[in-house]
């Protein structure tokens, strides 16, 4: 009995599967597609462009021949030699006294009137006992060859001392003028006399600067 029941069950399953298969619609057939490869169609050819005319080659312009410049002719110029400053050896410690021409004395108005009214004598600066030193020759003036004559107007008091020294005529070189003025301001003078009395007066003192004397 058990065997027959199993057989029946198996037969029922087979029948069910078969019946289900009969009820399902048949599968649709897929439409067939055929692809054909077409040969490529030739592209339309463009019309050839007309050949451009070849432009004529530009002819080179003839360059004018420039004349070769002549070298400048050098004219030799004669250059006058510049004289070098006179070289003067340093002055000795005690330079020689400046040469003095005749005194150009201008007597001043006397401080004390003389009863006799005699004219006053001019002050003197060339007396040996005065020991007046000569002006120092400036070193720069020696190197540059400066020479000249300075005329100094000196006011001398009754004691023989210079009260005022001014430059009456320049040598043309300020260094020489200053050296002469500085030296004479330290000098001593023989005062002017009017009768028996010493009086104040003025005198012109010339100072010569010569390189020959300073050598």
Reconstruct the topology from this structure.
Layout: H1 2-23, E1 104-106, H2 139-144, E2 148-156, E3 162-169, H3 174-184, E4 192-194, E5 197-199, E6 201-209, H4 211-214
Antiparallel strand pairs: 1-6, 2-3, 2-6, 4-5
**Uncertain parts:** 71-116
Largest beta sheet: strand ordering: 1-6-2-3
CATH architecture descriptor of the domain at 136-214: 2-Layer Sandwich
Compute the gyration radius: what is it? 69 Å
- CATH class bucket of the domain at 136-214: Alpha Beta
Measured distance between first and last alpha carbons: 177 Å
Number of strands: 6
Secondary-structure element pattern, one letter each: HEHEEHEEEH
Tally the helices: what do you get?
4
| Shape call | elongated
The oligomerization state is single chain
Strand content: 15-25%
Structural class category: alpha+beta
Helical percentage: 10-25%
CATH topology type of the domain at 136-214: Fusion Protein Consisting Of Minor Coat Protein, Glycine Rich Linker, Tola, And A His Tag, Chain: A, Domain 2
Mean pLDDT comes to 70
Largest sheet: 4 strands, antiparallel
Describe the 3D structure.
The chain is α+β, with helices and mostly antiparallel strands and 215 residues long. The protein has a domain at 136-214: Fusion Protein Consisting Of Minor Coat Protein, Glycine Rich Linker, Tola, And A His Tag, Chain: A, Domain 2, CATH 3.30.1150.10. The chain contains four helices and six strands, in the order H-E-H-E-E-H-E-E-E-H. The protein has helices spanning 2-23, 139-144, 174-184, 211-214, and strands at residues 104-106, 148-156, 162-169, 192-194, 197-199, 201-209. It has a four-stranded antiparallel sheet. The chain has a two-stranded antiparallel sheet with strand order 4-5. Strand 4 and strand 5 form a beta hairpin. The longest helix is centred in the first third of the chain and has 22 residues, at 2-23. The chain is elongated and about 205 Å long. Mean pLDDT is 70; it is low at 71-116.
């Amino acid at each position: 009995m058990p065997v027959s029941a199993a057989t029946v069950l198996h037969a029922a399953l087979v029948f069910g599967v078969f019946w289900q298969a009969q009820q399902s619609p048949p599968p649709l057939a897929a439409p067939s597609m055929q692809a054909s490869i077409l040969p490529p169609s030739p592209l339309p050819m463009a019309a050839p462009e007309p050949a451009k005319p070849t432009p004529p080659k530009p002819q080179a312009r003839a360059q004018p021949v420039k004349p070769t410049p002549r070298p400048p002719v050098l004219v030799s110029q004669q250059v006058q030699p510049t004289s070098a400053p006179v070289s003067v050896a340093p002055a000795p410690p005690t330079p020689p006294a400046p040469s003095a021409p005749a005194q150009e004395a201008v007597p001043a108005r006397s401080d004390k009137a003389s009863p006799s009214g005699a004219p006053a004598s001019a002050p003197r600066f060339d007396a040996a006992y005065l020991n007046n030193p000569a002006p120092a020759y400036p070193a720069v003036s020696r190197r540059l060859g400066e020479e000249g004559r300075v005329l100094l107007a000196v006011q001398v008091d009754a004691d023989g001392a210079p009260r005022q020294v001014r430059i009456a005529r320049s040598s043309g070189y300020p260094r020489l003028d200053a050296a002469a003025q500085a030296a004479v301001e330290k000098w001593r003078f023989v005062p002017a006399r009017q009768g028996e009395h010493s009086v104040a007066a003025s005198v012109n003192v010339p100072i010569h600067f010569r390189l020959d004397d300073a050598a």
